[in-house]
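User: I'm writing a tutorial on reading structure tokens. Could you give me a worked example: one chain, its sequence, then its tokens, then a sentence or two explaining what the tokens reveal?
Assistant: Sure. Here is the example chain.
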Amino acid sequence: MQISKEQIKHIAELARLKLTPREIEKYSSELTVILDYIDQLKVVDTQGVDIEPHQTGGSPVLRIDTAADSLPRGQVLSNAPERDNEYFRVPRVLDK
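And here are its predicted structure tokens:
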């Protein structure tokens, strides 16, 4: 399945990525190879194959969920590219 440059541009726009023409060409060919491989997997006969959630045969490893102190607000906001007093500042996502 061929992925066009226009499709790559559309995906990049949705993900808010700025891609160079060289990157668009690269990702177009790489995604085409990946999707071709997935098409090959679609024809594999899986009838009679048991589906097990854990191939190791063991049970999932769980940890106890315990409450812990949060980081101080100043420390968290110190990594923010933009902030407004005590809050992260982000671009508007929804229009009114």
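What the tokens reveal: The first strand starts at residue 83 and ends at 84. The two ends are 39 Å apart (CA to CA).
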